[in-house]
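Service request form, structural biology core

Requester: graduate student, group of Dr. S.
Request type: structure prediction, single chain
Budget code: on file
Notes: please return the result as structure tokens.

Sequence provided:
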Amino acid sequence: MEVCDSLDQARPQWAELDDEALPFQRLAWLAPWYEIVAPRHGARPVFVTVRDAATGRPLLFLPLCLRRWRGLRLIQFAGFGVSDYNAPLLAQGFEPSRAELDRLWPRILSALPAADLIRFERVPERILGRAIAFARLGWLRPMDLGAWMLELPETAPDYEDHILSAKTRKENRRKTRRLREKAGDFQLEPARATETADAYLEALRRQRGARFGADNNLDHPCFLAFYRAVIHGHLNTLAEIWALKAGERILATHLALRGPRGYLLIMHGFDATLDGGAAGIVALDQMIRRRIDLGDRYFDFTIGNESYKQQFGVKRVMLHEGFYPASPLGAAAILAHSALKYGCEAFAALRERANAR
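Core staff response, request fulfilled:
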């Protein structure tokens, strides 16, 4: 068991497991996060490596951070605000059971720096066809927040005939036709150079700003710098950015990560002046077809319970979260949080019962 707080010191063992990592735990994604986002949010790196005692090879790697949160010292996964999924990096063939995790967790906890709380969230049960061992930790619970994934069929006709409902097929054709009438002929185009990627990212920033206002994280300089660093460093190897274009006009945009035979859509935008959100739906439909043609097995809509995802035949990915006390102060905070949460729920139930009478 090794713990360090230096990215340079952690790189070698991280690199040994990087090929097995989910996209949100790749070095190419989180190294810019540690360099750009973490310092501006008072987060200090914490890296945990579990090695095989006999061979010394890394078996498990945890990219974490330590920060102050509501007066407490909190350890959590790196990437808060930008990473949709959190998970450890595991060596190929190392899939700890629930019992093994229960034995391993106290040793990890004892090696961590002093803290009051451990907080894990957005830990998926299964992603891109892989089970995530940490979702079996006994102190994690299912989240209300869901993630949504479409397992892609072999061909676009299979998608048309067996995934989409008759109503959705009809609506998609109508929206595609209306969009062509309003904007002219269009097509999906990937950014192959950083200059084009910057133009698409700026279009995405504007489109999301029109929808989300102050909640658009692309309007925050440090997050914009982070996404730009990932795109500039790893365009079309980890990050992809696409635009649905009619001539030079950008109708919709997608920012995504590439996984093992999977496409993880982390952010998208559209020109809402064109028949409401039609450009966004058309771009999603076209991109799903493109990913089928490229041989992908999964189209991951990632986190968020937005209703539009249901029309594409998605299945829910269960996410887990939890707090673990690392000090008496942390234990008191968890008790207070539980009392407040369940007390409010009990009060609401009593009030509802009284109103029913």
